[in-house]
Every structure is written in structure tokens, then in C-alpha cells.
Backbone:
């Protein structure tokens, strides 16, 4: 039963031999950037290129004749390449080596389905051109007063190393005679004008022969002067005065504030803040007081202002300054004390602390209540300073009897049969309203004689039937009592 299979084996061997011949024939086309093996064909693009060392190039390849289009990428026959010949990714991105290889590089795209199907591309790797290193500096010149500074900036091109050495007149970092420069290019002029010209140089770290310079002119600083405003002041103890200072002849306008030579002052002669706010002491000092603004740039430059310190003058004001109050009614008074940190007051009525039943009483908060009857003498409410009892303010109060007022109301009768009407009153237009008639009013008029001066009232009426059921409120009537 096994002998009939021998011709099949023979035929398979013939097929393999034919396929091998076909593969060899396919390799002959690789120079034309495609390769085939049987029905499998690979093409590559670009088929040749030139790259500098370290540069990259994307190769693209396509596979036909099979559903498996996967590829292996090789460099000089090595899968993925190497550091000597360059590397290639699985997607065909070739990166040339950092050093120049000895010969031409061959990039191969190989079919995964049929490894005999390949396509090749040649790459010539050349050296990178040597760029000339250059340096520029900004600004290219500057003019400074002694002790002033100038920021210089340097830019390096032609190399990846952007480091710079900063020099002044050829001295790395400079010195106290020609000025100094930091590693970031900040130049500071010397304290005196140098005898030679000044040149600030930025030198490339990568190539010391590449540099750029900026000329710096150094001039003497003008004389520093200080002025103070106001030039003098008079204050009560505990009070404050804002002083301001102007500095000329230097870019540093900062000042130190002193009182009688003491930085910031003290509790005896008064204190002054760093912004020039002077506060007098709580008691008159035994010596004169001088506020001084001293230049921070040049301590020998200063200006002063004399300050006269006066004892405190306490004053009291009262509000209102007069009032008219009906018997048993109240009036709120308020008082303000100046010239003393203690703003408390004592309240008196006609010389009596807190008042009495004859002239009226007053609370510690200034609420005065008139007596129940008009007093025979004038009434005076006084606010007396607790800190300085000799300082006070008074308000005259007129006590009056209440004036009788009444409000006469009338309304149109209801068109329905009613038993009578009720009258309601409120102190606001929106209510609430309170019934003020004790019994049902059968007439269409009503007199309200329980009103008080200075108030406004709002009235409404309702109609009621014999069962006591009331209608809604009528329209409102308003009455303002003088």
C-alpha cells in the first residue's frame, strides 16, 4: 500500500528544486530595489541615499504575492543592524552610525512569509560638515557709573556646547580694578574709574578662539543728595506724620529713617517706619526731635526735619446739638472725643451724672428720656471726656407736652345689607392691622384720637353682616401726624 506514494515524493523534490532555481532568479533583481521568490515579491524605497553620520532616514517596503506582509529589516545582513553599520527599526527607520563606516551600507527588507524574497537599498554614510563656532554678545556696548551693574548675554552657534567663559580685559571673572563679571554675564563696574578702557568678553568653552566683546565706559557717580518733605512738623503727643524723601545722584533711592540719630526711633523721641511714617511719643520729650532720611547708597548724604511735640488737646463734640422732646419720650445722643486715645464720655443732664426724674435721665450710651412733666428750668445734656473731664460738649433739650391729635375717617356705605363696620389701623402699609373700634360701628365715620405725633398710620375698614362675617379690607387711608 505504501509504494504508490513514491512518485509523489519524487514530484515534491522536483518542485523544491524548481523553487530554489526561482529564488536564485529573484535575487538577480535585488539591485533594482525589489526581490521575488515564486509569487512573493518585495520592493523598497528609496533604493539609494546619502546620510551624514548620526542622521536618520525612513525606508518603506511592500510585500505582494502573500497575505503576510510582515518584514524583517537588516543592515549589511544583520537583523536590526549594529552600532558600526547603523541601526534600523522594525518599521524601517534607519539611523546612521556616529562614526564613518568602512564601506557602503546595504539596507534589506526581507519577507517574513518567504525569507528568500528580499529587496535591497544602498546607503552612503558621510561625515558631518564641521561648523564654524561663533559667539555674539548683547549689548555690544554700555555706559555705567562706578559701582553700577549691567547684564550681558552671550549666544554660541556652530556647536552644541553653549558654555561661555566671561572675562574683563582678558581676566576670567574680572577684578576690583576693572570690574567683575559673573558666570552668567552680570558685570559690575569698579568703585573708581579705571585708567584703561574696559572690555567684557564672552569666550566659547568649546572653542576658546571664538569670542565676542562689548566695550564698557565707566564714569564717576554724581554727588548724592537727599531732601525731606515736609521740612518741619508740629504734632500732639501720640499723633503721626508721614514724611517722604527724594534721593538724587544715584539709582539707589532707598533711605534709612532715623529719629534723633536712632534708626527707627524709640518710645522717648517717637518712632518712624521704613516708609517714613513718624509717630510722636505719648508724652512731650525733654529735648527737640529731628526726623532724618539718610541715603542707603551714601550714608554721608541725608536731610532732616524738626518736629515740635505738643501736649494733647482733648475736644468733645455732641450730636444732635439741640433737640425737642415730649414728656416721657426719648432722644439718642452721640459724642466724639478727639485728642485722646480714650474716647469714653460721661453723660450728664443739667449737671447731674445720669440725670434724675426732674430733668430727665440719660444712659451711659447717650439715650436721654424726658421727665413725665415739663421741668421749670432749661435742660442741658452734656458729654464729658473721661480722659479729660474739663473737655465736654452740650446740647440744649426742649421738653414739651404732647399735643392732642385725632384722625377723622369716613367711607362710603356698603351696597349690601350690613350690620355695621370695623375700623383697622397699622403703622405700615403692608400691615399688620389691629381693630381699634370696640363695637361694630353702624355709621360710616370714625374718629381715632389715640395717635401720637411724629407717626404715620394706615387705616382700612371692613363691613360685617348680622352673622358677624366680615368682608375684606377696603382701600387704605394714610394719615401722618405732625
Residues:
Amino acid at each position: 500500500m505504501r509504494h504508490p506514494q513514491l512518485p509523489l515524493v519524487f514530484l515534491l523534490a522536483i518542485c523544491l528544486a524548481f523553487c530554489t532555481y526561482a529564488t536564485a532568479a529573484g535575487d538577480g533583481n535585488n539591485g533594482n530595489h525589489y526581490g521575488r521568490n515564486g509569487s512573493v515579491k518585495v520592493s523598497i524605497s528609496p533604493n539609494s541615499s546619502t546620510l551624514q553620520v548620526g542622521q536618520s532616514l525612513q525606508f518603506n517596503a511592500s510585500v505582494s504575492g502573500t497575505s503576510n506582509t510582515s518584514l524583517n529589516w537588516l543592515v549589511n545582513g544583520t537583523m536590526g543592524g549594529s552600532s558600526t553599520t547603523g541601526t534600523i527599526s522594525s518599521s524601517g527607520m534607519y539611523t546612521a552610525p556616529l562614526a564613518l563606516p568602512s564601506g557602503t551600507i546595504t539596507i534589506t527588507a526581507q519577507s517574513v512569509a518567504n525569507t528568500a524574497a528580499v529587496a535591497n537599498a544602498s546607503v552612503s554614510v558621510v561625515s558631518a560638515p564641521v561648523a564654524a563656532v561663533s559667539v555674539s554678545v548683547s549689548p555690544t556696548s554700555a555706559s555705567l557709573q562706578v559701582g553700577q551693574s549691567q547684564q550681558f548675554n552671550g549666544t554660541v552657534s556652530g556647536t552644541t556646547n553653549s558654555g561661555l567663559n566671561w572675562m574683563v580685559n582678558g581676566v576670567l571673572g574680572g577684578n576690583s580694578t576693572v570690574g567683575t563679571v559673573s558666570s552668567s554675564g552680570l558685570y559690575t563696574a569698579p568703585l573708581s574709574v579705571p585708567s584703561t578702557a574696559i572690555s567684557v568678553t564672552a569666550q566659547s568653552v568649546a572653542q576658546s578662539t571664538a569670542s565676542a566683546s562689548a566695550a564698557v565706559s565707566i564714569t564717576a557717580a554724581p554727588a548724592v543728595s537727599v531732601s525731606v518733605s515736609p521740612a518741619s512738623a508740629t504734632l500732639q503727643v501720640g499723633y503721626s506724620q508721614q514724611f517722604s524723601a527724594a534721593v538724587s545722584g544715584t539709582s539707589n533711592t532707598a533711605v534709612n529713617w532715623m529719629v534723633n540719630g536712632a534708626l527707627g526711633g524709640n518710645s522717648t523721641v517717637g518712632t518712624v517706619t521704613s516708609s517714613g511714617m513718624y509717630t510722636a511719643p505719648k508724652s512731650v520729650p525733654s529735648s527737640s526731635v529731628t526726623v532724618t532720611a539718610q541715603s542707603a547708597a551714601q550714608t554721608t548724604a541725608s536731610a532732616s526735619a524738626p518736629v515740635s511735640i505738643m501736649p494733647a488737646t482733648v475736644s468733645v463734640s455732641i450730636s444732635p446739638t439741640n433737640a425737642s422732646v415730649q414728656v416721657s419720650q426719648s432722644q439718642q445722643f452721640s459724642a466724639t472725643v478727639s485728642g485722646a486715645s480714650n474716647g469714653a464720655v460721661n453723660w450728664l443732664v443739667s449737671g447731674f451724672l445720669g440725670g434724675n426724674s426732674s430733668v430727665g435721665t440719660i444712659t451711659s450710651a447717650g439715650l436721654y428720656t424726658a421727665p413725665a412733666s415739663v421741668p421749670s428750668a432749661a435742660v442741658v445734656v452734656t458729654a464729658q471726656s473721661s480722659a479729660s473731664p474739663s473737655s465736654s460738649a452740650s446740647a440744649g433739650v426742649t421738653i414739651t407736652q404732647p399735643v392732642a391729635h385725632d384722625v377723622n375717617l369716613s367711607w362710603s356705605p356698603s351696597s349690601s345689607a350690613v350690620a355695621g363696620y370695623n375700623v383697622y389701623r397699622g403703622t405700615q402699609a403692608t400691615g399688620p392691622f389691629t381693630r381699634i373700634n370696640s363695637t361694630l360701628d353702624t355709621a360710616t365715620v370714625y374718629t381715632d384720637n389715640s395717635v401720637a405725633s411724629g407717626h404715620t398710620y394706615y387705616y382700612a375698614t371692613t363691613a360685617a353682616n348680622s352673622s358677624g362675617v366680615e368682608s375684606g379690607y377696603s382701600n387704605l387711608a394714610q394719615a401722618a401726624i405732625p
About this structure: The helical segments are 6-27. The two ends are 140 Å apart (CA to CA).
